[in-house]
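User: I'm new to structure prediction. If I give you an amino acid sequence, what do you actually give back? Let's try with this one:
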Amino acid sequence: MKFSVRETIAKKSQIKLSVKDKKLIQLLLQNARIPITQLAKKVGISKSAIVQKISSLKNKGVLLSPILHYKLSSYGEDLYGLIISTQIGIDQKQISEKILSLKEIGVVIWSNSHFNIGLILNGDSPQETVDKVNKIIEIKDFRLFKFKENWFHPPHMFKEVNDIRISKNEIIKIDEIDKKIINVLIQNPLATFAEISTKTRLAPLTIKKHLNFMEKNQIILPSYMVDFWLCGKEAISINLISRGKGNTDALINHLLKIPSVSNIWESHHEWNLNFILWVDEQFEANKIINDLMTKFAILNIDVSTIVGFSGK
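Assistant: Good question. You get back a string of structure tokens that encode the predicted 3D arrangement of the chain. For your 312 residues, that looks like this:
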């Protein structure tokens, strides 16, 4: 999985956004490929004004880059999460650059917890990657997860646009045509039908049919990365041990209904579930966590605040 985003660090400063800015950002979170004509209609401004607003929000650092979220089980990709504990007081930017130089690493996430660095990686030899990272920075403690499944719920940042529903669907297999299209969209989630056709040699009508199928079944979800901190949000990462398949399935279904939840990752590790909350204040996250602990069989939980991330 490729994360084409520049380095983003948590900031105390916020940017003033108009109602129309908020509508536009929320719509692009929900679907980065939404046509300009639809954006103009939903936001209530002209097509040229939409183009100008997108450019302005990018220049201000609010809109970062588009990213394609896709279901691991459908695509058949082996993806791993590695969280490590290192010394404090290190140069985050320099370390991120060195770690991202490893071809199998897609993203580096920094937090203020015991496990202060999180990595997402692919490849057949994750333990070898642990050794490579240890040569860059000393690993004092780590957890290595093989992801089982993932769900992306576009975080509902602004109430000016309705939240969208994401469901915990059964595994839906895709064919080689679908994979060809996904491979192009991983590199450029905004690729046009003509661009996809050139790279895959598929007819535009075929591409449209397969894209509609994958979007309808929530196999893919193109979204924009947003500097949430600049919009006044806090990023909270939660790792937990959920007991039993039925309980875990019910917990995932519940999480997908919480507007502030974004990425949900289920893994084969003892710590079998991770999700991200984007909230206005940390007490909102505490309220959600306390509610989960009351309703579900959760044996243990780790909570940390994300303070930055970098991607290729």
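You can read the tokens as a compact description of the fold. Here is one thing that stands out. Residues 8 and 48 are 28 Å apart (CA to CA).
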